[in-house]
Amino acid sequence: MMPEQRQEIIRLLEKGEELSPEWARILFPPEKREYELVYHGKEREEDILADTLAVPLQPVRTFGSNGEWSNMLIFGDNLQVMKSLLEMKKAGKLCNADGTPGVRLIYIDPPFATKQEFRGTEDQKAYQDKIAGSEFIEFLRRRMILIRQLLSDDGALFVHLDQKKGHYIKVLLDEIFGEGNFRNEIIVRRIQKNYIEREYIASLNLATDSIYVYSTGSQAVFAPVYKKMVIEETWHSLDAPNWSGTRPNLVYPLFGKMPPKNRCWAWVKDRAEAAIKAGDLRPNPKTGKPEYRIPARDKVVCTSLWDDLLAYSFASEYPTEKSESLMLRIIEMGSKPGDIVLDSFAGSGTTLAVAEKLGRRWIGVDCGKLAIYTMQKRLLNIAESKDLENTKKKYDKQCKPFTLYNAGLYDFSKLKELSWDSWRFFALQLFQCRDEPHSVGGIKLDGYLKGASVLVFNHMKEKGVRIDEETIESLHEALGTRIGNRLFIIAPALTFDFQQDYITLGNVRYYALRIPYSIINELHQREFTCLKQPSDEMAVNDTVEAVGFDFIRTPELKFECGVRKGKRESQDTAYIKIKTFKSEAVVREPMRKKENLETLSMVMLDYDFDDNSQVFDLDAVFYADALEKTGWALNFPIDSIGKKIMAVYIDIYGNEARVVIEPEQFGITLANNNKGKR
Ligand SMILES: C[S@@+](CC[C@H](N)C(=O)[O-])C[C@H]1O[C@@H](n2cnc3c(N)ncnc32)[C@H](O)[C@@H]1O
541 in ligand 1 pocket by Cβ < 6 Å? Predict the structure, then answer.
C-alpha cells in the first residue's frame, strides 16, 4: 500500500467515515486468484465458517427400527444444519459405509428465482434486482462453502441451475473448489414439447438447465453412466496415421497385408492376434483389409449432453420437482451403495427417494413444512412408487429407517424427556458452547463460550432448586477471581429466580442463558429470523434465510366443520371453516401483535388418518392466500373423508396446530362414509 493511501485510510477511519468498496482490493489484494467475482456483501470465507451458528438436531420421530445408521430428514435452514452436520463429521459421526468421513455426493437444486417484489421506476427496479441478485448469489455461496467442508476427500457436488444466474455461480464454485476441480457442465432438458411457432420472438425459448459438477480433489472418480440407444454391429478399418514413422511397432503384416503408405495399424500385434481369435478382427470381405468389430449395443456411455431424459417431473404437485431418471444418473455417477448422499434443498425428496432405491445412505434438508411432509409421505409410501429400472413395475420394498429432526425450531416439551447427558449436550449446542468439562475452585463446569466458562445447571439432580441471587453469591465466593470476568449459566427458564440477563458481582458478570427464552444479542450478533413458511404456492420455492433458534408454540385455533348441500347429493361438499388462528414466535419479540388469521401459512390434510401409526400422510394443501378468498373455508369432496381427518395448520414461523376430526363432526355417520380415499 502506498504511504498516501495509508494516510487516507487513517483519515477516513478517524473521521468515522465508511470506506468505499474500492478499498477492499487495496487492503486485501487477491493474492492467489487472478480473477474473482466482486459484489456488495461478499463476506470472507473464514468469517462465514466461523459465524454460522450450528443448531442442535432434535429427533422428532424415527420411522422403522433404528440400526447403526438411520437416514436423516431435517426441517431447518440448510446453512445452520450443514454447520451441525460438519460438527458431526468432525466428531467422526458422519461416515460412508466404507468408513470414509464426510458426504460422498451432494446434489442441490436451489430456488433459481430472484425476488421481484419491488415496485418503482425502471432504474430503481434494475438496481433492486441487482441487489436481490447479489444477495441470492451470496446466499448460495455461503452454503457452497459449507458443502465443500462437508464433502469427503473424494466427494463430488452437482449444482442444478438455470441460465439466469448459473454463470455467476460457476465463478464462485471455481473460487470455492478451485478451477481445477471443475469436472463438467451437464446440459439437461427442461421442456417436454416444442413450442408453437411465432412470427417474431424476443429470445429463444428456454429448453435447458445446467448442472455444474465439482470434485473436492483429484481422487474423486465417477462411474460411467449410460443412455439407451440401439446400435447395430459395425466394422471399422484398423489403419491409423503413423506420424512421421514414429510408430514402427504398429507396422507389421496382418492377413498378408502391410498398412498403406505413411499409415500403421491401430493395435499392437498381440492385441490384433487376440482379437482375431475372439472373432473381433477380420479381413474386409471385399478389400481384404483388416477391420475390427464394434458389437451391437442397446446403450452408449453418456456425454455431458443429457437430452435423452427430462429433468423435471411434470406429473408432480410439488413445484419444480425433478425427475427420478435424472437423479438416478447423478447418484449412479457420483456414489456407490452405502455412500452418503445429501440434498440440502430437498423439496419433494426426489434425491432421497432415488438414493433409497439405490441403497445409498441419505440426508435431506428443507426449510418448508410442505416439503417435509411431502418427503415423509413419499418415503413411507415408496413401495408403491415406480421401480427405477422397469417403470412398469412397482418398487415394492419398504424404506429403510429414517429419523425426522427439527433444527432451529424445537419442541420444549420433548426436551423434558431427555436424559441429563442429552439435555446438557443440547444446552451447550444451543448456545454454541464448546463442550469441554473443567473445574474452577472445586466447581465442575461444562465448557466455554467466547473464552468464558459455561455451567449447565443440573436441574434434574437438584430438583426444585432455584437459581437466585444467593446462589450466584455462593458461586462467586467459590470461584473468586479465577473465573475471569464472565460466567454463563444455562438452565430452564423457570429455574431462574431473577429477571435480568446478568448479575454483576465484583468484576464478574454472571449471565443467565434461559431455555427457551434467551437471546443475548451480544452473543449472537446476528438478528434472529424464523423459518418463514409461504402462504401461497408461488412462494414455495423462495429462498429462506433463518438464523438462530426458536421454540414451538402451538397456535390458538378454533374452527367449525360441516357439509354444504349441493344440487344433487353427489355434489355435497365438506368444509372446515377457520374461525380463529393466532400465533406468535416464542423467543423473538413479535414486532406488533398479529391480527386473527394473519399468521396462517397453510393447512394440510390427511383425509384418512391412521390412529394406530399416528403418521400424518399428506393428501391436500390449502394456502392462506387462497383460503382468504373462500372466507377461510377449506372445501373438499365429501367422499374423500376416510376413517378420520388429520388437519395440520401451519403458521408462518413453522409452528403447527394439529387436530383429528371425526366424520361425525361433519354430520356424516360411518355407515354413509363408506368411501375413504383408499
Ligand atoms: C427447487 S426446490 C427443490 C426441488 C427438488 N429438487 C425436488 O426434486 O423436488 C428448492 C427447495 O429449497 C428449499 N429451500 C429454500 N431455501 C432453503 C434453505 N435456506 N434451507 C433449506 N431449504 C431451502 C425450498 O423450500 C424448496 O423446497
Answer: yes
